[in-house]
Structures are given as structure tokens and as C-alpha cells.
Amino acid sequence: LTESSVQSGQLCCVPVTDWWHHLVIHCVISEREVEVFSADYEHLKIVQKSWLRFFKWCYLRLPAQAIPCSLAGVKPVEGQWSSAAALLLQELCGSDLLVGLVDESVSGILHIFLSDTAAKEDVSFHRVLSNRGHAVICKENLPSQGFRELTPLALYVQP
């Protein structure tokens, strides 16, 4: 990318091993580095400016693969999800075989029941969060407090 193109919100791609990743420049860190956001994998990463490449025009029409989701049937015990609940959820998501059942879509956010099906018995995420005291089972789906503020995904992916 030319120096004038290296700015927040610019779509680009970066080679990672044998693949090119679809990224958005989140912010310029220094003369040599930028922080980029991968909408497909929903993570921020610092990369060298020299690695950045323009997207071919035909690929710009492809949507990001990430979909905004919230767990269905649970709400945090104390109004907001605790750090411990977030760490547990991250740990639960470590499996390669997760199954999501969509309960409903509200304002572009899918409310899903998420389960790990790799073991002999399925592990239901909302049950684990509830059993460990991080969540309360509920009948209505409530979007996570501050959902849009929690992730750069909200800046770059339209529901």
C-alpha cells in the first residue's frame, strides 16, 4: 500500500503462511507498524506496513465471514459478563468441533446455543456457564451489554 493509503478503515490483505488474510487497518502504530483487524477471525494483530497489499477489486465484494453472535438462553449473574466468564467461554471455544443452533436473530445479532460435540457427551455452553455460577438461565435472549463496544467487528462488519 502507498503511504497515503495506510489509514484506519482501509481494506487490505496480508500474507500469513500460504494464505492471504482479509484485513482492515484498525490504527497506525508507528512508521513501520499498523494494528489490523481480521473480520474473518475477529482478532487484532500488529503487522509491518510493508506486508500490506491492496485487495483485488473483485474480492472487495465478498463479505467478511464473521457473524455477530450472542449466547441464547443465558444472562450474566451481575448485569455484565465477568472476566472469569469471558475466560471460561474462551476456554470452551478451544475445541475444533463446535455446533451452534440459532434460536433467533435480533437486529443483526444471532442468538445461538453453542455446544462442544467433540467428547462422548455434548457440552452445552450455557449450562457450563450456569453451573459454574457465571450465568442465569433465562427464556428471553438479551444482547450482551455493550455488545457493539466490545469488539472492533462492529466497526467494520455490517449485520
UniProtKB/TrEMBL annotation:
Stored InterPro entries: SNase_OB-fold_sf (IPR035437), Tudor_domain_containing (IPR050621)
Highest taxon of the lineage: Eukaryota
PANTHER family: TUDOR DOMAIN CONTAINING PROTEIN, TUDOR DOMAIN-CONTAINING PROTEIN 5
Protein name, per record: Tudor domain-containing protein 5
Organism, scientific name: Merops nubicus
